[in-house]
């Protein structure tokens, strides 16, 4: 059923194209000189149909569901929804939908069956209406486009205007995405702050997002102070940088100055492989190999190591960041003007001295920018820590302990069925907001450093 | 100045040479040290890669075979009456057939019968049931079947269970090992290639679990991602590179795209959860929503690659076309874009390869559900390859460890293949101007 409007659209587009093309061809055959080529006349009609009707179908499909849901729910007899929470209301809706699909479990109440009939009827109505509207609008546009075909009609300009509009739309999608991120995160965060005061969220040292499932259940009220979570994130980030910075920088120095050209051609792509491995693979690697290795090592020297230490998660994350840092540092070193290099070598310094006293210091701003980008990566990295780090938020900076991170909490709070009306779910969005803000600030700052420094040497 | 000159005198060139020569050895040593430390750092990175791949291969290769047992099944009409189909005691039928191969096992004892039945996978009875339902004439006949054994015995056959560990720490008990060895001695145990890994969907039983559902989900998600991000990305890149006026708005869009490329993937998941599922009411766990989310993440990559490819087309091409009277759009769409296409395709494939490995956003939109059938449309519930890896990695059964590694090897195989295609395209079609 949903395929039918699209089929109609394709047919209408083709029809518009052919009609206008033939009309223009007929004018040309009569000896008149056309302003635009006949294919542009066809394209004009095709785009005139395609763009608005496709937009219409997509909007219809997006809004049809929620509108029908609302109509069905408001058509229910009075009182049946009294005393049900949003989650329960969703369940009723899901039940009505499954009844309308013919999947009946047990004996539903009569009003549910009636609502299911209502739902099915509304769906069919909506489908037919859509087909009718698509057909009518397409025909109207084809007619309009056909009426424009004259020898003087500037079809090419018309087509180019439409194409140009489409391209502008494409480039604003990125802006819409950013706006979407900000609006959705802010909206849910504000709802979270209705329930939990901002001061508690920002300065609380307790993160226990459990909430009682039933009214009479004895459970913690839930504490939403994000400090232990961000502290855990920082512990893991620092561990990762302890691995990534030395290895990354030293390999960049070697690649940039000492590696023979052939060796460099081999090493660079292999390092790229490390960067291309999906993070879920690193996570499994941390759980399967690194964490047991660290635990065995700790036991053999008599230290008590948690099963999911920050060390394992951070160390593996460090490996992931090595190619990132090394390629940034390599670029930064290459961007230093060769006059500095040549001058240092000309004064008789060895290549190592030239590297450590001239090239490296000159490249430091770019390297710092790269390291900052790596930090923002480490903070936002999800799968490694979800699989290898802990779940309990602790105020500790001991890397052998188990800590949790912002991303781990977001994922664990949202995995499984979620409804948008409890502080637990909303807390994930608040954490997401903080994560977005922190990484955005670091990124903007880092990109500014990198750019400024590049300009300085250009 | 004169003071200094008079104090130190004219530098003695011979002395300077000596001084430098004396320190040169030390300085050269320092250089060698830096060089070796650098090489060592690269060595560490390589070593990690080798350990990573090595550990995955060593634990994953076993999952590419699966132990099967071939047995003569007598479909006992007493256990499987025709009128009760599709219900019936298929597990007992299979257990009895296996018991016939084990004269020493006293099948009349419940405990013995249970532990003999434990050798067979839970899927065996469903296989038999499907065969009998499809052809009820089989009731009362004897047929030869090859069915998978259950996970503990699969591990035993692959020597992953140490027979020397004390019995209480082992998942298979001594008599069970005896039964298994007896069957093996009769030559009924085989270890063929594990096609089920590709033809089965997920299952709670490791020996039956496969990747079909995950592969289908990934296919639909990547298809959606491509269909959305490819035109949008190219359109945006062409506009920004060729048509956009140099003003604040264009700068703003550009900064936006660059920042979007660095937003953590889990934030895209939150966006998808709040907007696509929460506000638009799209179905949870659907590859379509996953593809939509991945498209937003892939778009910056495609835009950046396309712009680089467009930039690389020399201005002479544009000028020649413009000089012959083509309009600006004709120049771009008929000349520049076709020449830039290899670069665009390379960027797109690399973007899709990144999307293939993305896990976190898919987890948030619920593509980590337990689903035992393959999605047949992008709106069905499904898992994806990386989320399936995540699910299996979390499963407590031992058998899932090697399946997880195998799934990772398959994922890495796809990534290598995609990147190889990208590199091939770049080298084959790259224009040297």
Largest sheet of chain B: 3 strands, antiparallel
Q: What's the N-to-C terminus distance of chain B? A: 58 Å
Widest sheet, order of strands of chain B: 2-1-3
H/E series of chain B: HHEHHHEHHEHHHHHHHHHH
Please report the number of helical segments of chain B.
17
Describe what you observe in this structure.
The complex is a heterodimer of chains A (458) and B (433). By secondary structure, chain A is an all-alpha fold. Chain A contains 15 helices and two strands. In chain A, strands 1-2 form a two-stranded antiparallel ribbon. In chain B, 65% of the residues lie in helices and 4% in strands. Chain B has helices at 2-8, 13-60, 90-100, 110-117, 122-134, 151-157, 174-185, 196-199, 212-243, 248-262, 265-279, 287-312, 315-323, 328-357, 360-364, 385-394, 399-429, and strands at 68-74, 142-148, 189-190. Chain B has a three-stranded antiparallel sheet. In chain B, helix 2 crosses helix 17 (399-429), helix 3 packs across helix 4 (110-117) and helix 16 packs antiparallel against helix 17 (399-429). The longest helix of chain B has 48 residues, at 13-60. The model of chain B is unreliable at 1-7 (pLDDT under 50). The chains are: A mainly alpha (458), B mainly alpha (433). At the A-B interface, helix 2, helix 5, helix 7, helix 8 and helix 9 of A face helix 2, helix 9, helix 10, helix 11 and helix 12 of B.
